[in-house]
Structures are given as structure tokens and as C-alpha cells.
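Exercise 7.
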Amino acid sequence: MKKITLSLFIAASTLFLSGCLVSSAISTAIMVSNDRRTAGEVVDDKGIEFSLFAWTGEEKILENTHLNFLVYNKEVLVTGEVPTRTIRDHVIKQVPTKDFKIKRVINEIRIAKSSGLLSRTKDSAITLKTKLAFQSQDVFNPLHIEMTTENRTIYLMGALTTREADKATKIASTIGGVKRVVKLFNYLKTIPAAEVARAKEKKAEAERKKKLESERVVMEAKKAELRRQIRALDPNSGTDF
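Solution. The predicted structure, written as C-alpha cells, is:
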């Protein structure tokens, strides 16, 4: 009986993990397809983040620190708290050595006691509220922005036009609890041509569907009128029309 139970548990766990992997893969594919970075650039950035987080868990000097990394286009934002200036300098010196692809390190580390669970939870809430607010506008694609919040300061990264960046910054600055918004964008002169083409295709498809729906409504009205006329001419005749 125990063997059967264990087998069922393993099978269920395998299915669950497989489902998670599929869901994760689909989510990643959607994000990459909407990213202004190439798939290779996204993979490189995620690889850099993984290397840095792995490093912080291995180095003894970093045991009493709280560090976060956000990477966009091989530029690394380092946030969090460390107890001394010496440790902060050590971190900033070591980060570029962890992956040869790193182009720039942005130091936003505070010399302070590690933030507590309450502070980090509030930061997570600010990030969530900001991402939700980004959904309620049509100037930029929210998936074009990477963001994190540390000590009530929002950091924004991504490749945006000036208009898009200004809109994102304005929205972020209105979120309750935010002290500061830091823009770390790679500015684009224009929206990429491929995106413009996709937007036109999407608009054309939406207009086509709207037209078809309008025609359907008209035909349904005509159908109802013809049914009424048939019944008026011959009340006893049945019709499937």
C-alpha cells in the first residue's frame, strides 16, 4: 500500500512539475516575443542575474547583507543594504568579474542594516501596484519595462522612447508609498519598425473583426424580420429560419 501511495505521489509530483515547466516556458515565450531585446539578449541578462545571485550565496563576507540584482541589456543594477563601506566597495568591484558580458554596474547599495520582512513586503506591494497601473495606459507596452523597488524607491529599466519613459515615470511617481523614481532607460529615437508593423496588423485585425460583428448584427436583424414576415403570412407554417 505504501509503495502504491509513493508511486502516486511521485506521479502527481511529476505532472505538477511538468505543468509548472510548461507554464513557465509559455510565460517566458510570451515575454520574449514582446521584449525589445533579442531572445539571446534576454537569455544573457537572465544568465548574469543567476550568476550574481549564486555568487552572493557562496561568499562568506556577504552573509549579513541584503542584495538584489536587476539586469537589462547587460547593465547590472545592484540594490540592497550592506553593513560597511568596505563590503559595498567589495561588491561593486566583484560584480563585473562574475560574467564577462557585463557592460556596466549601477551602484544603488545603501550602507545600512538589512531591511526587514515588512519593508520588503511593502516594496513588493509597490512594485505590484506600479505594474497594475502600467496596464491602464496605451502609451507603452508594460512588458518593455523591468522594474524593482528597494526602500520605497522604484527603479525602472528598459528600452523606451522619451515619450514612453516620461509616461512610465509619471505613473510610477503617483503610486502610494513611493519616495523616489530612478530612470535607468536605454532611450530609443523611434519605436522599432517591426513593432509599428505589428501594431498596424493588430489594428487592421481589430477593425476587420469589428466590421464582421457589425455585419452579423445587421444579418441577425434581417433574419428576425424575415421570420416575422413568414409567420405573418402563414401563422401555421413552421420554420427553422
